[in-house]
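Z., the sequence and structure:
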Amino acid sequence: MGADNQFPVIQYVNEAGSLKQDEVKLHKEQLYQFYFMMVRARMMDKKCLNLQRQGRIGTYVQYEGQEAAQVGSALAVEDGDWMFPTYRDHAATMSFGHSLRNLFLYWKGRLEGSIPPEGRNIFPPAVPIASQLLHAAGAAWAEKKKNSDRVSIVYFGDGATSEGDFHEGLNFASVFHAPVVFFNQNNGYAISVPMEKQMKSKTIAQKGLAYDIPSLRIDGNDILAVYHETVKAVARARSGGGPTLIEAVTWRYGAHTTADDPSKYRDQQESEIRRKTTDPLLRVERLLKNQGWWKEEEKERMEAEITKEINQALKEAEKFKPADIDELFDHVFAEPVWPIEEQRKQHKRLSREGIQ
C-alpha cells in the first residue's frame, strides 16, 4: 500500500465550506472564536511585514496561509502544557496566550521578546532547525516522571524532518512513551527546496512508522480538522498513550523570510490561486455562510478590535530603548567563561574605535 493511501489527508470541512464529518457538532460561538484568532494572527503577520519594510524591525519570518494549522493546534492544548515553537510559529504562541508586545520585541532583537507571560510554558522560538523536538521530548518525559498530566506540543517544518534531531526526538519519545505531540507543518518547501528534492518519502506521517508512533495527515488549512485531531492526540498523550506525529498539509503564501525571493524557485501564481480556494480564513467564512451564521459587521468589529490591540502592543514595544549588543554575552553560560569574556572585551574595544 502506498504512503498516500496509508495516510490519507483528514478533512472536516472542504474548500466550499461544507461539513464532511457528520459526527462533528458545529457551534457558532466556537467557529467565530476560530475565525477571530485566525484574523488576529493574519493581521499581526501583515503588521510585522509592514514594520520590516519600514525598517522598524529586522528580518521577519512570515506565516500567512498557515493560520489554521497554528491556531487550531494551539487551542487544543491547555494551561500548564508546554509549547515549543520555531521562529515562524507566532500564530500558535499568540493563540496560546503570548504577549503581542513581546512578539514585537522579539523581532526588535530584545531579550524580553522570548519571555512568555506568567504561567505560560512557551519556550523561546527555535532558530536552529529541529533542535526544539529534543527539548519537547525531554520536557514531556520530565512531566511524566513527576507524575503530572502535562503535555508538550512542538512545531516544525518539512525541512526539519531531514535533520538528525527529528529522528532522535521521535525515537526518544517513543522509547520513553513521552506525552508529546509532534506537529509538522508541511508547506511543501524547506526554504528553496521542494519536498520531493529533500526526501524520497511521499509523506511526513510515514516517518513515524519507524518509531512505532501513531501518525496521521490532516488538511492544515481546515481549522476544524486541525483542532479536533490535535485534541485527540493531546488527550491520548495526557492519558498515558504516548506521542503522536501529525502532518498538517498547508501552504505559505509569502517568502521564507523577508530576505528571500520565492519567485526564484516557486510559481507565485500558485499562491494567488490558493488564496481564492484553500485559504483557511475563507473556508471558515464559507462554512459560516452555509450555516446562515455569517455577519459582515461582525468581521468589521473584529478587525477594529484587533487593530486597536496590535497598535497598543506596538506602542508599548517601541517605548523600549534599542537593545544593547553587549547583552549577547550575558546569557551564553550561567557563569562567565574566559572565551566569552575575551569576546566581550574585543567588542568593547572595537566599539570604542568605531568599528562595528
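The chain is about 45% helix and 10% strand. The radius of gyration is 21 Å.

Let me know what you think.
H.
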